[in-house]
RNA sequence: GGAGAGGUGGCAGAGUUGGUUGAAUGCGGCGGUCUCGAAAACCGUUGUGCCUCUACCCGGGGCACCGAGGGUUCGAAUCCCUCCCUCUCCGCCA
């Protein structure tokens, strides 16, 4: 959520910044409604002050045994007017919310221009895709022939886009989760969390997952006000909702492994095979709560933490800075990590690291007390570190051998208890 | 799932015959006195949001907030309704 006071003060700046996203924000309408709202509030509060005074006088009169019927009558009339004004205020507020909650975060200045994916800019690349002296196969074929990925039976138990992992496959999934968490907790200074997997609508709204457009993606429980976790960003960022943190507690670094569920509405026909786009997938998330002055550097550090995972696994990847038009709703700046996948003959997103500035914190009301002064909003950041299924696929494809076996990456040998699969 | 108790300021804990109670008191925190310094003692101070005045800050005035939402009333932390949560006992289970 944007800062309404800032919006009020310099709407043109916001209009320009949001324009970089290709958005024509209805800010004129906002300014007009906002002006009207304050007018109504002022009138209502003035009448309330009057009523409060009258109530005191009625009390005093009663104690003195004086009749106050006329005062009570006048006060009653005032009450009706106040009720009407408050109703009007609430209506205007609702209209304002409808506008403000749909306004995305303005991009930071160093975010490249561009309307879509094609405007993204590579900032660095690591490793080089291995050449194969045989025809490399996609991970779903290798997985099937090694009998470690079973998509038919996954579908039998649930439906399509659900997968059954078997034997070394199940072991690899678990190994990756452990490896990620161990790296981040022991070497990168993150505290491990294991939050609830079912999430209430208030938390979903807080991080923006429940806005008009995004609501389609979530699995909702029929009998309860709960959703299946779409990304650990939601439960983890919400842990401090409505809290004021002590400045000395910042920065907070937390990491969490959590199964994630998405309906993938609108993705029909895309990535239909293999582990790339599943309804249920595992992910290790990195989340930071930081002081505003530090968030820019914290994003660089968080991105490097995610990159480190790929380096340890010796998987070639590149890092791209998303252009203004490709940024997610709440992000002011995002780096995507893309891993090399032979089956795509290209790079595929495996992590997305974003700085939200105070956009999420304002909506979630997460603040910290600076010195002895007023509470200020923290900045929040998050990134995948990493998506487990896509890492699984990348390992199978990049480490495949001509005989159909897969070499276990050095970093995973202890976790796997084997040097090769198959 | 059954029965009961309860949700008040950073914490603890008053206040429920409705009326200067934003809320006693204690602790903690901050500032000061004292001290070479510290402790103790004493004095003062100590919530958040919004509206408004002044040029932003500081400050002044106002409104709101005692789990959430609604209701009764001139007036509600105090009465009524709905929901949420916590605790205790029983049952059940991992």
Output the keywords:
422 residues; alpha+beta; Helix Hairpins; BirA Bifunctional Protein, domain 2; 2 domains; 8-stranded mixed beta sheet; 3-stranded mixed beta sheet; elongated; RNA-binding
Give a structural overview:
- The structure is a single chain.
- With 422 residues, the protein is an alpha+beta fold.
- The protein has two domains: 4-100, Helix Hairpins, CATH 1.10.287; 117-421, Bira Bifunctional Protein, Domain 2 (BirA Bifunctional Protein, domain 2, 2-Layer Sandwich).
- It has helices spanning 4-9, 11-19, 27-64, 69-100, 139-145, 151-157, 168-186, 201-206, 233-237, 295-312, 359-364, 388-398, 413-416; strands at 121-126, 149-150, 164-165, 191-193, 198-200, 226-228, 243-246, 252-261, 280-290, 317-321, 333-341, 346-355, 366-369, 375-377, 379-387, 406-407, 420-421.
- The mean pLDDT is 90.
- It binds one RNA strand of 94 nucleotides through α3 and α4.
List the helices and strands and how they pair.
Blueprint: H1 4-9, H2 11-19, H3 27-64, H4 69-100, E1 121-126, H5 139-145, E2 149-150, H6 151-157, E3 164-165, H7 168-186, E4 191-193, E5 198-200, H8 201-206, E6 226-228, H9 233-237, E7 243-246, E8 252-261, E9 280-290, H10 295-312, E10 317-321, E11 333-341, E12 346-355, H11 359-364, E13 366-369, E14 375-377, E15 379-387, H12 388-398, E16 406-407, H13 413-416, E17 420-421
Helix pairs in contact: 3-4, 5-12, 7-12
The chain binds one RNA strand of 94 nucleotides through residues 38, 41-42, 44-46, 48-49, 51-52, 54-60, 62-63, 68, 71-76, 78-79, 244, 372, 375.
């Amino acid at each position: 959520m944007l800062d309404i006071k800032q919006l009020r003060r310099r709407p043109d700046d916001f209009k320009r910044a949001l324009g970089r996203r290709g958005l024509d924000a209805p800010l004129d309408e906002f300014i007009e409604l906002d002006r009207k709202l304050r007018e109504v509030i002022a009138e209502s509060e003035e009448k309330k002050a009057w009523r409060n005074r009258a109530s005191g006088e009625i009390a005093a009169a009663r104690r003195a045994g004086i009749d106050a019927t006329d005062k009570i009558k006048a006060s009653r009339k005032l009450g009706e007017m106040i009720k009407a004004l408050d109703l009007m205020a609430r209506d205007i507020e609702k209209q304002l919310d409808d506008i403000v909650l749909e306004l995305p975060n303005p991009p930071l200045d160093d975010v490249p221009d561009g309307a879509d994916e094609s405007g993204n800019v590579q900032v660095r690349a690591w490793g080089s895709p291995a050449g194969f002296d045989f025809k490399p196969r996609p991970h779903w074929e290798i997985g099937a022939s090694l009998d470690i990925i079973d998509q038919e039976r996954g579908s039998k138990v649930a439906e399509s886009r659900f997968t059954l992992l078997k034997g070394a496959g199940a072991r690899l999934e678990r190994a990756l989760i452990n490896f990620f968490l161990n790296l981040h907790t022991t070497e990168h200074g993150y505290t491990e969390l294991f939050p609830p997997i079912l999430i209430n609508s208030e938390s979903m709204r807080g991080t923006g997952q429940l806005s008009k457009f995004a609501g389609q993606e979530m699995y909702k429980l029929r009998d309860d006000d709960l959703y299946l976790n779409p990304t650990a960003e939601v439960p983890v960022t919400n842990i401090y909702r409505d809290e004021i943190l002590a400045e000395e507690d910042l920065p907070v670094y937390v990491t969490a492994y959590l199964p994630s569920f998405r309906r993938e509405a609108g993705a029909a026909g895309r990535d239909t095979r293999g582990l790339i786009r599943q309804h249920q997938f595992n992910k290790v998330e990195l989340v930071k709560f930081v002081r505003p002055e530090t968030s820019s550097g914290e994003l660089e550090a968080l991105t490097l933490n995610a990159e480190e995972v790929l380096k340890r696994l010796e998987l070639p990847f590149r890092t791209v800075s998303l252009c203004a038009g490709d940024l997610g709703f709440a992000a002011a700046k995002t780096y995507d990590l893309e891993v090399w996948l032979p089956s795509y003959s290209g790079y595929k997103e495996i992590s997305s690291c974003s700085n939200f500035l105070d956009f999420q914190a304002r909506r979630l009301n997460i603040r910290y007390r600076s010195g002895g002064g007023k509470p200020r909003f923290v900045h929040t950041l998050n990134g995948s570190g990493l998506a487990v299924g896509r890492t699984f696929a990348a390992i199978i494809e990049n480490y495949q051998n001509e005989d159909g076996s897969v070499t276990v990456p050095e970093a995973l040998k202890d976790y796997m208890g084997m040097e090769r699969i198959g």
